[in-house]
Amino acid sequence: MAKKKQEEPPKGSPAWMTTFSDLMNLLLCFFVLLFSMSSVDQEKFDLVITSLQNTFSILPAGGSAVGDGDMVSAGISQLENLDIYYKEANSISEIESENPDGEKESDKDFKEEFEEAALKESEEMGEQLEAMLQQAGIGDKVDIDVNAQFVRLTLNGALLFDSAKAEIREDALSIVEKLGRAVEVYAENKIDIEGHTDNVPIDGTQFDSNDILAAYRALAMRDYFLEHTVLQASRIGVTSYGEYSPVADNGTEEGRALNRRVEIKIYNTFNSY
Fold this sequence. Notes:
Number of helices: 8
Radius of gyration: 38 Å
Number of strands: 5
Strand order of the largest sheet: 1-2-5-3-4
Order of helices and strands: HHHHEEHHEHEHE
Shape: elongated
Oligomer: single chain
């Protein structure tokens, strides 16, 4: 009697692998969807969960959150705190939306405290300098103003230099000397000396432009301080603004006189390094 031919097994993958592959694809799409959300709207998030529950039957029907039940009956436990995580993420997004620049509240508070402390120090420096200059008898020749970065001492250029010249006038040397004694109290601070002019063109002088004239005037002040005070060259910067940073209208003689000036900026310790 002939043996019955054994039936060949069906070709292709077993049926359970197809179901398992579909499940893995659905899970992948689900988590990609969740992590692609930069800001989670709670109402929309709940709608997504409900849609997945009803359509794909990944989550148990009737579940109110991702944390309810098991993800699959085979025993693969779901991330029970996933809904809590997204609620916290949503709260963070709301806080960030209140700060459009993305600055954290703690950083903002620190910045405000830093600026307040720096401004307070500048104000104290300004008061001390004003007292020293008044005592030296030159308080009326130096304008003082402060901000959170530095104290600015402003001297009229006509008081220090002859027209189109960069040598300190003989009758102004005593003023510069007294000023240097006050400034050297802050020898450890960063100091900038700036030269400024009006916009009247220079003709027939040793300087080709107002920029060069302003630079040489600032250098003359720095060199005097280095020679007659304890100030160090490494702490003093020199800048020429020429005619490009006016404080008054160059269309009037009074305005041009105010623009011809030398400014000495003494930075507070918060901004000296």
